[in-house]
Design goal:
Helix content: 25-40%
Structural class: alpha+beta
Strand content: 25-35%
Strand order of the largest sheet: 1-2-7-5-6
Number of helices: 3
Radius of gyration: 15 Å
Number of strands: 7
Oligomer: single chain
Protein backbone atom coordinates (compact mmCIF):
# COMPACT_ATOMS: atom_id res chain seq x y z
CA UNK A 1 0.00 0.00 0.00
CA UNK A 2 1.27 3.45 -0.77
CA UNK A 3 -1.55 5.85 0.08
CA UNK A 4 -1.02 9.09 1.97
CA UNK A 5 -1.84 7.48 5.33
CA UNK A 6 0.65 4.68 4.70
CA UNK A 7 3.30 7.26 3.76
CA UNK A 8 2.56 9.17 6.97
CA UNK A 9 2.83 5.98 9.04
CA UNK A 10 6.23 5.32 7.48
CA UNK A 11 7.34 8.91 8.18
CA UNK A 12 6.43 8.37 11.83
CA UNK A 13 8.34 5.08 11.89
CA UNK A 14 5.13 3.15 12.52
CA UNK A 15 3.96 -0.11 11.00
CA UNK A 16 0.40 -1.32 11.25
CA UNK A 17 0.36 -4.75 12.86
CA UNK A 18 -1.62 -7.73 11.68
CA UNK A 19 -5.20 -7.61 12.91
CA UNK A 20 -5.50 -9.07 16.38
CA UNK A 21 -7.64 -12.22 16.09
CA UNK A 22 -10.92 -12.06 18.05
CA UNK A 23 -10.76 -13.40 21.61
CA UNK A 24 -14.47 -14.30 21.58
CA UNK A 25 -17.54 -14.17 19.32
CA UNK A 26 -17.08 -10.85 17.47
CA UNK A 27 -15.35 -9.26 14.49
CA UNK A 28 -12.40 -6.85 14.87
CA UNK A 29 -14.27 -4.26 12.75
CA UNK A 30 -17.53 -3.94 10.86
CA UNK A 31 -18.83 -1.51 8.27
CA UNK A 32 -22.31 -0.03 8.62
CA UNK A 33 -23.18 2.44 5.89
CA UNK A 34 -20.41 5.07 5.78
CA UNK A 35 -19.02 4.09 9.18
CA UNK A 36 -16.55 1.56 10.51
CA UNK A 37 -16.83 0.47 14.12
CA UNK A 38 -13.94 -1.39 15.70
CA UNK A 39 -14.25 -3.77 18.57
CA UNK A 40 -12.25 -2.85 21.63
CA UNK A 41 -8.57 -3.18 20.81
CA UNK A 42 -6.11 -4.33 23.45
CA UNK A 43 -2.42 -3.39 23.49
CA UNK A 44 -1.41 -6.63 21.76
CA UNK A 45 2.06 -6.83 20.23
CA UNK A 46 2.91 -9.94 18.23
CA UNK A 47 0.03 -11.87 19.74
CA UNK A 48 0.48 -10.99 23.41
CA UNK A 49 -0.24 -8.14 25.76
CA UNK A 50 2.61 -5.64 26.07
CA UNK A 51 1.85 -5.26 29.82
CA UNK A 52 -0.80 -6.39 32.29
CA UNK A 53 -2.18 -4.92 35.47
CA UNK A 54 -3.98 -1.87 36.79
CA UNK A 55 -2.95 1.66 35.87
CA UNK A 56 -1.85 3.49 38.98
CA UNK A 57 -0.64 0.24 40.57
CA UNK A 58 1.40 -2.21 38.43
CA UNK A 59 1.35 0.03 35.35
CA UNK A 60 2.33 3.71 35.31
CA UNK A 61 0.26 6.37 33.58
CA UNK A 62 3.08 6.94 31.07
CA UNK A 63 3.29 3.22 30.28
CA UNK A 64 -0.50 3.11 29.88
CA UNK A 65 -0.40 6.10 27.51
CA UNK A 66 2.06 4.18 25.32
CA UNK A 67 -0.25 1.15 25.49
CA UNK A 68 -3.15 3.32 24.30
CA UNK A 69 -1.02 4.23 21.24
CA UNK A 70 -0.64 0.51 20.53
CA UNK A 71 -4.41 0.07 20.88
CA UNK A 72 -4.97 2.87 18.34
CA UNK A 73 -2.54 1.26 15.89
CA UNK A 74 -4.40 -2.03 16.32
CA UNK A 75 -7.68 -0.18 15.70
CA UNK A 76 -6.31 1.31 12.46
CA UNK A 77 -5.24 -2.19 11.41
CA UNK A 78 -8.78 -3.44 12.13
CA UNK A 79 -10.24 -0.59 10.07
CA UNK A 80 -7.88 -1.32 7.19
CA UNK A 81 -8.89 -5.00 7.30
CA UNK A 82 -12.43 -4.07 6.23
CA UNK A 83 -11.82 -1.04 3.95
CA UNK A 84 -8.47 -1.91 2.37
CA UNK A 85 -7.14 1.65 2.07
CA UNK A 86 -6.89 3.97 5.07
CA UNK A 87 -7.12 6.95 2.70
CA UNK A 88 -10.86 6.15 2.59
CA UNK A 89 -11.17 7.56 6.13
CA UNK A 90 -13.04 10.88 6.02
CA UNK A 91 -12.57 11.38 9.76
CA UNK A 92 -12.37 9.66 13.10
CA UNK A 93 -15.73 10.30 14.71
CA UNK A 94 -15.40 8.82 18.20
CA UNK A 95 -12.83 7.13 20.40
CA UNK A 96 -13.80 5.27 23.56
CA UNK A 97 -11.01 4.30 25.91
CA UNK A 98 -11.21 2.04 28.93
CA UNK A 99 -8.51 2.12 31.59
CA UNK A 100 -8.24 -0.68 34.15
CA UNK A 101 -7.58 1.59 37.11
CA UNK A 102 -6.34 1.30 40.65
CA UNK A 103 -9.07 2.60 42.99
CA UNK A 104 -7.41 6.00 43.45
CA UNK A 105 -6.29 6.53 39.83
CA UNK A 106 -8.07 9.44 38.11
CA UNK A 107 -5.83 10.08 35.10
CA UNK A 108 -7.86 8.18 32.50
CA UNK A 109 -8.01 11.14 30.06
CA UNK A 110 -4.22 11.45 30.03
CA UNK A 111 -3.86 7.73 29.32
CA UNK A 112 -6.31 7.79 26.42
CA UNK A 113 -4.49 10.83 25.03
CA UNK A 114 -2.01 8.22 23.76
CA UNK A 115 -4.62 6.93 21.33
CA UNK A 116 -5.98 10.37 20.46
CA UNK A 117 -2.54 11.82 19.81
CA UNK A 118 -1.54 8.88 17.61
CA UNK A 119 -4.67 9.29 15.48
CA UNK A 120 -3.89 12.98 15.10
CA UNK A 121 -0.27 12.29 14.15
CA UNK A 122 -1.31 9.74 11.54
CA UNK A 123 -4.48 11.32 10.15
CA UNK A 124 -4.01 15.04 10.83
CA UNK A 125 -7.31 16.96 10.98
CA UNK A 126 -9.16 13.76 10.03
CA UNK A 127 -7.99 12.29 13.34
CA UNK A 128 -9.75 14.91 15.51
CA UNK A 129 -12.63 13.20 17.31
CA UNK A 130 -15.12 13.10 20.16
CA UNK A 131 -14.01 10.86 23.01
CA UNK A 132 -14.80 9.13 26.28
CA UNK A 133 -12.14 7.92 28.73
CA UNK A 134 -13.54 5.56 31.35
CA UNK A 135 -11.98 3.91 34.38
CA UNK A 136 -12.97 0.28 34.92
CA UNK A 137 -12.17 -2.42 37.46
CA UNK A 138 -10.73 -4.97 35.03
CA UNK A 139 -10.33 -5.58 31.29
CA UNK A 140 -9.96 -8.82 29.30
CA UNK A 141 -6.70 -10.71 29.93
CA UNK A 142 -5.85 -8.16 32.66
CA UNK A 143 -5.08 -5.57 29.97
CA UNK A 144 -4.44 -2.08 31.35
CA UNK A 145 -6.12 -0.29 28.41
CA UNK A 146 -8.69 -0.98 25.69
CA UNK A 147 -9.65 1.40 22.88
CA UNK A 148 -12.44 1.34 20.30
CA UNK A 149 -12.66 3.67 17.33
CA UNK A 150 -15.46 4.76 14.99
CA UNK A 151 -14.56 6.27 11.63
CA UNK A 152 -16.57 7.80 8.80
CA UNK A 153 -15.64 6.86 5.25
CA UNK A 154 -15.47 9.03 2.19
CA UNK A 155 -18.13 8.49 -0.49
Amino acid sequence: MSGAVDVRLAELGLTLPDVVPPLAAYQPAVISGRYVFTSGQLPMVEGKLALTGKVGAEVTADEAKDLARICALNALAAVRSVIGDLDRIARVVKVVGFVASAPDFTGQPGVINGASELLGEVLGEKGVHARSAVGVAVLPLDAPVEVEVQVELTD
